[in-house]
């Protein structure tokens, strides 16, 4: 039970923060197409399901990775005759060193935020992360380590900021994936994991069943309030059509593209 409590004190803040930040990622992903999640039928219940499945998939990846790291640490400790373990315990017992490492880690978790909202090179990113960690977190973490409740609070803060940092890195991945869809018409595994619809259809007029848009394939982003939200890969446009006047003809999920295919053929 003590082991589970220790794991939970670190894992729960990470998962909660990651879950919260993923909502921003979904919004940023659909913003690439000029719409918001609600306009494509992604309401709160759908978002809950998508983000829960994403967190579960991340956990499935993280658990064996953590196991490998723990195994590697155990092996290193055995090879060094216990010296590595004694070094780690010595660092934990020195408040300034432990506080400094936690502060630098928290500063580094802002990298995803900097990359999303700015355009900084690696050197500037390192300087900002180190400066932020030292100025904002070092002294508070040192003060918190005086008592057990303070050390527990430090774990929660570090875990929460770690989840936020991972979340913003995922947002960068979602935005990059949405840009790829916009230019190539193909989604990646990360977009599929959060439930992005890589579904294409030929639209037909509901009155006479004649093909619309010259029978070209259109990407169905979603539907809401009696309206289809579509992406025209050939013209690089996001369109809306009433469902009552539109039939979906041939439908294809995750279509194969020829090598080198790009959207915007009619624009060029």
Please provide a written account of the structure:
The chain has helices spanning 2-31, 44-79, 83-93, 95-108, 111-117, 122-144, 148-184, 189-193; strands at 199-205, 217-224, 227-232, 237-242, 246-253. α1 (2-31) crosses α2 and α4 (95-108) crosses α6 (122-144). It has 2 domains: 2-184, no CATH class; 197-253, SH3 type barrels. A hairpin with a 4-residue loop joins β3 and β4. The chain is 61% helix and 13% strand. It is α+β, with helices and mostly antiparallel strands and 268 residues long. Keywords: Membrane, Transmembrane, Transmembrane helix. The chain crosses the membrane at residues 7-26, 55-76, 96-117, 123-144, 156-179.
Helix percentage range: 55-70%
Note the main sheet: 5 strands, antiparallel
Helix and strand sequence = HHHHHHHHEEEEE
Rg measurement, Å: 24 Å
> How many individual β-strands?
5
Measured by DSSP, the beta-strand proportion falls in 5-15%
- The average pLDDT is 84
Structural class: alpha+beta
Q: What are the low-pLDDT stretches, counting only 5+ consecutive residues below 50?
A: none
In quaternary terms, these chains amount to single chain
Brief overview:
The protein has 268 residues and is α+β, with helices and mostly antiparallel strands. 61% of the residues lie in helices and 13% in strands. It folds into 2 domains: 2-184, no CATH class; 197-253, SH3 type barrels (Roll), CATH 2.30.30.
List the main descriptive attributes of the protein structure presented here.
about 270 residues, alpha+beta, membrane, 2 domains, about 15% strand, elongated, 5-stranded antiparallel beta sheet, SH3 type barrels, 8 helices
């Amino acid at each position: 039970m003590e082991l589970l409590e220790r794991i939970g004190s670190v894992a729960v803040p990470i998962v909660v923060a990651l879950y919260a930040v993923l909502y921003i990622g979904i919004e940023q992903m659909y913003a690439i197409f000029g719409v918001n999640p609600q306009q494509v039928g992604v309401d709160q219940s759908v978002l809950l399901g998508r983000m829960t499945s994403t967190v579960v998939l991340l956990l499935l990846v993280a658990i064996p990775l953590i196991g490998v790291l723990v195994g590697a640490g155990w092996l290193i400790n055995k090879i060094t005759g216990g010296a590595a373990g004694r070094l780690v315990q010595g660092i934990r017992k020195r408040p300034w060193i432990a506080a400094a490492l936690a502060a630098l880690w928290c500063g580094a978790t802002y990298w995803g935020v900097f990359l999303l909202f700015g355009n900084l090179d690696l050197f500037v990113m390192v300087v900002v992360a180190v400066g932020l960690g030292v100025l904002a977190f070092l002294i508070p973490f040192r003060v918190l380590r005086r008592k057990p409740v303070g050390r527990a609070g430090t774990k929660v803060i570090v875990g929460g900021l770690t989840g936020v940092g991972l979340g913003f890195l995922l947002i960068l991945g979602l935005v990059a994936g949405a840009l790829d869809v916009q230019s190539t018409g193909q989604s990646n595994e990360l977009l599929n994991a959060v439930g992005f619809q890589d579904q294409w259809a030929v639209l037909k007029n509901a009155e006479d069943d004649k093909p619309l848009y010259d029978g070209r394939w259109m990407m169905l982003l979603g539907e809401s309030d009696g309206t289809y939200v579509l992406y025209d890969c050939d013209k690089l446009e996001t369109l809306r059509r009433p469902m009552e006047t539109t039939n979906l003809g041939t439908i294809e999920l995750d279509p194969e593209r020829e090598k080198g295919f790009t959207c915007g053929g009619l624009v060029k």
